[in-house]
Amino acid sequence: MKALVAIKLTYDVNQIKFERDGTPILDSCPKVMGEADKCAVEEAVRLKKKAGAEIMAVTIGSSKEHYRILRDAYAMGVDKSVIVRTENPERLDSLTIAKIIASLNNKLGPFDVIFVGSGASDTHSSVIGPMLASILGYKLLANSDKILFEDGKFIVISTLEDGQYKIATNPPVIITVTSEANEPRIPTIKDILRSKRKPIDEISLENLDVKTKELTLKNLTRYVVPRKRIKIDATENVEEAVDRLLKMLREEGVI
Amino acid sequence: MVDAMVYAEDISWAKQLASASKLFGNAVLITTTAKETKEFSRYYKKVYVIKVKVFEPLSISKVIEKVLSEEKPNVFVFPCTNKGRMLSGLIAGKLGLIPITDVIGISKSGKKFMLTKLTFGGNAKVDIEIELPFIICIAAGSFKEAEAGEVGEVKELEVPKAELEVDFEPRKMEGVSPEKAEIVVGAGRGIKKKEDLNLVKELAEILGGAWSVTRPLAADYSWTDNWIGISGLIINPKVYIAVGISGQPHHMMGVRGSKTIVAINNDESAPIFEESDYGVVGDLYKVLPVLIRKLKEQRGR
Ligand SMILES: Cc1cc2nc3c(=O)[nH]c(=O)nc-3n(C[C@H](O)[C@H](O)[C@H](O)COP(=O)(O)OP(=O)(O)OC[C@H]3O[C@@H](n4cnc5c(N)ncnc54)[C@H](O)[C@@H]3O)c2cc1C
Ligand SMILES: Nc1ncnc2c1ncn2[C@@H]1O[C@H](COP(=O)(O)O)[C@@H](O)[C@H]1O
Fold first, then answer.
1. What is the pLDDT of residues A151-189, one digit of tens each?
2. pLDDT band, residue B1 (cuts 50/70/90)
3. Phi and psi dihedrals of A123, rounded to 5?
4. Which one of B33, B133, B207, B255 has the largest count of C-beta atoms within 10 Å of its C-beta?
5. Pair A170, A203 in one domain
6. Cα separation of B174 and B130, whole Å?
7. Which range marks the domain in which residue A196 is found?
8. Which residue has the higher pLDDT, B216 or B121?
9. Are A126 and A160 in contact (CB under 8 A)?
């Protein structure tokens, strides 16, 4: 069995700062491998034991940090890794990313299972997995909170708007993994040292047969929701504060 | 031929997406909800109902593709829910289109459209210039619910064979479902113990509403099964009362459809106050009992 896991270098959105005019200050914003992607790597690595799978990790980009997250994946136990080199991975839209991963499947695969995160913390489009399933004609197990492999089948539990789904299918399959799926392992010092010697294969985006249209993006700025922002101080006189709140809610006709 | 095809499973989304699609011309709706179809048809030229026992995105997307090949719409509109994102991705992959998710605004200039979408976990927005055809997923609360019109045509589509083996267990709700309730009380990590959730449940009950939590209370502490936010439930109540919630964007993206937001938080600088209509600065353990008592008095209980 061969498995691929796609990991993204994402902005840590809870630490993002803005200029006074609302422009995000991206250069100083820390970047990490997303939570869900770590869980995806963990699932892939667990599959080695369960099914003797060979695991390859891939990321798209070319910065030092992109290499770093592939090393992190090595330290967690993946067997191989490849970087798809391109200068501005942030500019790639979801269709292009799905096409890149699909074309890797044709070049280096086919893989029996491709793990992706259910959503990266910055883009969180959650469409990469479903698009891949369509493009490759694979089955889709999306939003997986728990992943089992039994008798050659993948079985996942997925919690959606209306309840819990238990879904089973044979490979080949795309599995999107949520950050609830597992507790990703923390590599030992030995694992980390070993990961530094592992080779990272490189493919340049131009060498993959991926044609895309660029989207025109404009006016990236801070988003502030319009709200009334009336503050009521309840640190001292709670009774009075609650009366004020109830009065205003009643006037608005919402309670 | 129609201009836009919309997918929605509940009436609030159906109304929001009807007004989001106005700019595109006439729209048809596809749904898997077999109830309320007449109600749905007041907002669309035509409603297609896919009668399925259980939601399985691959087989549903195939039925949708069939409708597409007949109706040939230029725009595909989905809700930014887990299911909406899945289906939009499947259809986009098939058609070779880029699905634009988290759309909060649409405008038209000539043949081009300008879409405004959220990014960086809802902290920032960006405009995208795009030509037809395209696929969009609309963020909750970005469009007002459309006005009802006449009851229209409803067409049933054949039940697709599920492509995968699916077992479904509907969500067991203690009380009212947050997605249907007019008032929702949300609990965050300001609630220190599981028992203290009773305060939140009691408030919800008096108000005739529902309660839910932020992700850590469900996913990390397992106090309940579901949470509100981008990776959980998306709600559109009249009032959302956030208790002990800091207001991180991943949570807020699930509640922005609320008409009014009330926050109770003891940290004056908590980001939730930026996104609230009424921000009560104080200790929830002091504020909630008083609020509950006063509401009870008023309602003669
Ligand atoms: C990809 C991704 C997806 C995510 N999806 C979701 C999602 O769908 N939904 C979600 O909720 N989260 C989601 N999260 C997590 C989210 O980023 C936040 O971590 C989470 O919402 C914080 O929950 P909280 O507000 O309860 O806790 P905290 O951030 O810890 O806030 C607790 C608040 O309680 C206040 N407080 C403490 N004591 C009291 C008191 N006695 N009285 C009054 N106030 C008090 C504090 O001042 C603080 O503001 C996601 C994260 C990621 C990375
Ligand atoms: N630039 C990228 N490189 C590698 N994997 C990616 C990239 N972008 C997205 N992915 C994968 O797709 C998943 C979902 O991304 P998104 O839907 O954009 O939030 C991520 O968790 C990754 O597994």
1. 999 999 998 888 899 999 999 999 999 998 999 999 999
2. low
3. -80, -45
4. B255
5. yes
6. 44
7. 2-208
8. B216
9. no
Number of domains in chain A: 2
pLDDT tens-place string over residues A105-147: 999 989 999 999 999 888 889 999 999 999 999 999 999 999 9
CA distance B189 to chain A (A): 17
Q: Using a CB-CB distance cutoff of 8 angstroms, which residues of chain A are in contact with residue B54?
A: 165
CA distances from residue B135 to A62, A90, A182, B19 in whole angstroms, order as listed: 30, 20, 33, 16
Q: How far apart are CA B84 and CA B91, in angstroms?
A: 11
Subunit contact A130:B85, Cβ cutoff 8 A: yes
B277/A229 touch (CB, cutoff 8 Å), yes or no: yes
Query: Which residues are paired to B76 by β-bridges?
Result: B5, B135
Task: Test B277 with A227 for CB contact under 8 angstroms.
Answer: yes
pTM equals 0.90
In tens, the pLDDT along B268-293 reads 999 999 999 999 999 999 999 999 99
We report the CATH number of the domain holding residue A161 as 3.40.50.620
- Residue B22 has phi, psi (to 5 degrees) of -50, -45
| Ligand 2 pocket, residue A128 CB under 6 Å | yes
Beta bridge partners of A158: A144, A165
- Interface predicted TM-score of the whole assembly (ipTM), two decimals: 0.91
**What would the DSSP string read from start to end of B23-65?**
GG--EEEEES--TTHHHHHTSSSEEEEE--SS--HHHHHHHHH
Looking at residue A202, its amino acid is E
- Would you give the distance in Å from CA A38 to the centre of its chain? 8
Q: Say if residue A162 is in the same domain as residue A234.
A: no
